[in-house]
Description:
Layout: H1 2-18, H2 22-46, E1 54-62, E2 67-73, H3 75-93, H4 103-122, H5 126-147, H6 152-178, H7 197-205, H8 209-226, H9 236-242, H10 245-255, H11 257-270, H12 272-299, H13 303-322, H14 327-358, H15 369-372, H16 374-387, H17 394-409, H18 411-436, H19 452-470, H20 473-491
Antiparallel strand pairs: 1-2
Helix pairs in contact: 1-2, 1-4, 2-3, 2-4, 3-4, 3-10, 3-14, 4-5, 5-6, 5-10, 6-8, 6-9, 8-11, 8-12, 9-10, 9-13, 10-14, 11-14, 11-20, 12-13, 12-18, 13-14, 13-17, 13-18, 14-16, 14-17, 14-19, 14-20, 16-18, 16-19, 17-18, 17-19
Amino acid sequence: xxxxxxxxxxxxxxxxxxxxxxxxxxxxxxxxxxxxxxxxxxxxxxxxxxxxxxxxxxxxxxxxxxxxxxxxxxxxxxxxxxxxxxxxxxxxxxxxxxxxxxxxxxxxxxxxxxxxxxxxxxxxxxxxxxxxxxxxxxxxxxxxxxxxxxxxxxxxxxxxxxxxxxxxxxxxxxxxxxxxxxxxxxxxxxxxxxxxxxxxxxxxxxxxxxxxxxxxxxxxxxxxxxxxxxxxxxxxxxxxxxxxxxxxxxxxxxxxxxxxxxxxxxxxxxxxxxxxxxxxxxxxxxxxxxxxxxxxxxxxxxxxxxxxxxxxxxxxxxxxxxxxxxxxxxxxxxxxxxxxxxxxxxxxxxxxxxxxxxxxxxxxxxxxxxxxxxxxxxxxxxxxxxxxxxxxxxxxxxxxxxxxxxxxxxxxxxxxxxxxxxxxxxxxxxxxxxxxxxxxxxxxxxxxxxxxxxxxxxxxxxxxxxxxxxxxxxxxxxxxxxxxxxxxxxxxxxxx
Length: 496
């Protein structure tokens, strides 16, 4: 029941927020997010380390075609649910000093987004996974369209079309695998087909090489658009820049993890033969993403756009590590999902503070802010160093494991992917130097230091950076059995 509560509580409070006034909506939404976080921590405390899903709710939904409302959490799911429910309160809190029109609708959409994200990470039925996947798109599309910046209609339309097209490809692939299943694969009586995840695993692994190839590409493209990975990334920079800050935080901090999670949970186990044949191609595309996005980030003059391209580079490394098919690569992918979610939310909040104080995102127009806002400069520096994977920060743990896994797969792939560490340091340190150091100018002379609410967002992010960077073992231990189970499923095909 805990899993169902985590899904439906934000839905119910979101509906309540929608019918309240703006000021009350903000408070109710934040209180809801805090309660949701408390339930998640309770589930984490009760969680027993092991490969099997826990907190299971399995109810027949559309019995005639074998669709179940089947949700549960294993070590992979619970960490991504934790990430979601840690970040949502911070995202809501980041808006408290901002004037948001129609705040009740804005906060209701955030809570509906939270509901869909938790559903994506806990669904153990292929059709239910697709439903939550699509539900997550609707609130963020409205948030970007109604509260976004210039040209938001055109940019959000492109975002919607890209992601919807990928979703339809994934649905076709899931239906094809579903048609190869029946209840007998689960030991049930009868031959009714089923979307149960274990049945899809079994049916997918028994498909021919040609069938697995096209299913691989249909699902990979869907997940690659969501992450995004080159060449499916073109919707991302404009959308991230145009979206309101809280929308960008949801997109980069949590929503892109739907794609990387999809690789681990659905793509690798369903089509292991397809992964064996085309995994190297996926790694090449991922490494191209790292290098391409890093070089473009170095050239950026807009700080928010720089962070957007840096996100493509980071997720490219996550994708490459996952396709290494090593336990270290999968561990690194999951740890980097958590680290990137925390760090990118911090960076986009820094960009929001800079813009609200100076009315510009142009890096060249800033400078000297450390002289007038030392607390802000210090916290920004910590988040920036975590983003470039400084040891003892959370970014280092994931990148080390990812590069370790890639090195086991191919030394050249690891070498090219490892350039992300150097290139990331170039664009992030340069951006920090030009915005925080140097002489004060007319734009930054009146820059004020952090307010209480702004500290309440950035300080927890900094604490998480150090806690998970210095001692990541509890998180790794929670996820390892489930990740090892994924690796074992692939190895059973005798391809490795």
